[in-house]
Structures are given as C-alpha cells and as structure tokens.
Q: What sequence folds into this?
C-alpha cells in the first residue's frame, strides 16, 4: 500500500513537472526517448571522440536538449498521429546532436573571425557617409 502510494505520488509529481516545462507526450515515451538520445549521443561520441573529458557533459546535455526539441517539433508537426515513434525520434536526434553541435560551433567560430568585416559592411549600409577610418 505504501509502495503504491509512493509510486503514484512520484508519477503525478514528475508528470506535472514535465507538463510545466512543456513536454506534451507520455512520461514513458519521454524517459525512454531520453535514454535512447543519450545512448545515441554516446555512440556518436565513440565514433568521433572529444579532445577532453569535459565535453562529455556538453554532449549529454546537448543530446537531451536537441532530443526534446525534436520530439516536441514532431508532436507539433504531426499532432494527430497516435503511432508517432517519439522515443525513436529522440534517439536519432541524440545521435545527430553531436554533429549539429560541431557544425554550429564551427560556424560560430567562422562568424567570430568575420565580425569586423560584417560590422563594417552593416555600418556602410546604414550610414553610407562614413569613411573606413571612422570605423576604427
């Protein structure tokens, strides 16, 4: 009796917490998909290892975040499909998140190297009367 009450209270509390952060599908699909996403990210990590161990947490958090976004996006795009494989979508998103994160960081690095040129071009577009010496 006590065990059943504890399970019911935990179930209700976790369900309410997930609903509060916007998770709109059943808990068993969410946690199953989250574990698949972490497994997918772990597999992708073994295929292309990091430079140091600190990146392990970044990979895990990125996989969880990307998997939740992918699952919610799929649920938003196909709201009436009862056979939508949420855990599989989350697992694939966890695997892909490793490569999306690398591409995003690479693009951010390239953008950072070009910020002076971008700022100059924007200022010349907005304020066409300025000379190049005024930008420095």
A:
């Amino acid at each position: 009796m006590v065990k059943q009450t504890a399970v019911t209270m935990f179930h209700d509390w976790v369900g309410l917490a997930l609903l509060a952060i916007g998770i709109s599908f059943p808990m068993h699909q969410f946690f199953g998909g989250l574990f698949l996403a972490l497994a997918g990210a772990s597999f992708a990590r073994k295929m292309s290892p990091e430079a140091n161990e600190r990146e392990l947490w970044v990979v895990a958090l990125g996989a969880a975040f990307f998997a939740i976004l992918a699952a919610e996006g799929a649920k938003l795009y196909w709201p009436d499909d009862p056979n939508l494989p949420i855990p599989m979508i989350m697992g694939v998103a966890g695997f892909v998140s490793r490569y999306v994160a690398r591409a995003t960081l690479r693009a951010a690095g390239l953008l950072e190297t070009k910020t002076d040129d971008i700022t100059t071009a924007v200022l010349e577009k907005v304020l066409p009367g300025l000379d190049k010496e005024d930008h420095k």
